[in-house]
Amino acid sequence: MTTISLKLPEPLLQDVEAEARRRGISKSVLIRDTLAATMRRRRAQKSLTCLDLMGKLVGSFHGPPDLSTNRRYLTKAVSAHARRRKNAG
């Protein structure tokens, strides 16, 4: 096993020491087990997709079904934006 050096703030070190005593293991074993468990959980988590992030909003917009593919809607939106900027400035 490879040895590494680690600096911990005093409150965290006290927590590590107390937990290691409670479990009856060394600080090294506690830190190694905790780090390994964290890495396993991280690997087990699936990557978030845009759908995961926007899930609650899916279906909340009411509009034409081809809004994302029909160029006519983009042209109207760009024209309306330009008119708003012209009127505001």
Q: Can you characterise this structure?
A:
By secondary structure, the protein is mainly α. Helices cover 62% and strands 0% of the residues. The longest helix has 18 residues, at 27-44. The N and C termini lie far apart (67 Å).
- Give average pLDDT, whole number: 87
> Which regions are unreliable across 5 or more consecutive residues at pLDDT < 50?
none
| Main sheet makeup | none
Q: Note the run of SSEs as H and E.
A: HHHH
Tell me how many strands there are: 0
Structural class given helices, strands, pairing? mainly alpha
Write the layout of secondary structure elements.
Blueprint (H helix, E strand, L loop, with lengths): L9 H14 L3 H18 L5 H5 L16 H18 L1
Question: Can you give me a brief rundown of this structure?
Answer:
Helices cover 62% and strands 0% of the residues.
What keyword list fits this structure?
89 residues; 4 helices
